Amino acid sequence: MLLAETIRTIPDYPKKGILFRDITTLLGDARAFRRAVDELVQPWAGTKIDKVAGIEARGFILGGAVAHQLSAGFIPIRKKGKLPHATVSIPYSLEYGLDHMEMHEDAVTKGERVILVDDLIATGGTAEGAVKLLRQMHAEVIAACFVIDLPDLGGAAKLEALKVPVRSLVTFRATRRPWRPPGSRTSRSARGSASRGHCRARTCRRARARRRSRCRCASMPRIGSR
Ligand code: AMP
Questions:
Q1: Which of 95, 173, 200, 210 does the annotation list as catalytic?
Q2: End-to-end CA distance of the chain, in Å?
Q3: Domain 39-171's class?
Q4: Catalytic member of 58, 191, 216, 222
């Protein structure tokens, strides 16, 4: 099973020109959900992780499961005004907008080892904000983990420049595709990942190798690879 194939792509959501990578289809598939969580957890199994920080909202679902597997605490990083106790706050930019994120000021203590989890990294503005928030409270950010990386938007590179190792399970490149009639062998309307005119037949060995190289699963860890 390819994780990439369990993710639905919705064109022009929430704005025209955005290819929204919808992980609700992955979450609804028991095997895919389990596999995604296992692969996010795998590099940290047996290491000391004090807390997992999840970014609202899809980062809560994944981060909660990862924290449980690692026997770590969970830190919710939320949009402004949602947390009930005293907070620390930081502005951040999104692929499609600007916002503020917050965390409880007592959510983490100095020197705690934290991994950050979200569903997707695009421009990296959200994750960068979360890293700065955690560092503001003197946490040690061990890594940032995502199901999806959109490398053309430079987010992973931005985090690595902050000395935060990045791990992602699936990569989608943002190239424009020529229109093809629905049902044609090379039509990929539901997935929307890169087409460079390669053969995509399931029986083709090269096509399988290309698909494997796009799915950065546990056997191909990315940490420190850039
Ligand atoms: P960014 O700050 O640009 O890295 O955006 C990452 C955050 O925005 C994540 O919390 C994602 O859930 C969401 N996001 C940004 N772009 C997309 C996209 N194309 N599809 C789905 N979610 C996205």
A1: 95
A2: 26
A3: alpha beta
A4: 58
Q: How confident is the model at residue 96 (pLDDT cuts 50, 70, 90)?
A: low
pLDDT band at 178 (very low <50, low <70, confident <90, very high): very low
**SS3 label, residue 221:** coil
Distance between CA atoms of residues 107 and 52, nearest Å: 11
Measuring CA to CA, how many Å separate 146 from each of 50, 62, 84, 91?
19, 9, 27, 21
Q: Which pair of tokens denotes residue 134?
A: 């955690």
Whole-prediction pTM value?
0.80
Instruction: Show me where the domains of the chain are located.
Output: 39-171
Ligand 1 pocket test: pick from 79, 95, 159 the residue with the most ligand atoms within 8 Å of its Cβ.
95
Is the CB of 124 within 6 Å of ligand 1? Answer: yes
Q: Quick: pLDDT tens for 136-165.
A: 999 999 999 999 999 999 999 999 999 999
Average pLDDT, the chain: 85
Give per-residue pLDDT as tens, 107-125: 999 999 999 999 999 999 9
Q: Distance from the CA of 125 to the center of ligand 1, in angstroms?
A: 9
**Nearest-angstrom CA–CA distance, 213 and 121:** 18
Indicate whether residue 51 lines ligand 1 (CB < 6 A). Answer: no
CA 203 to centroid of ligand 1, rounded, Å: 33
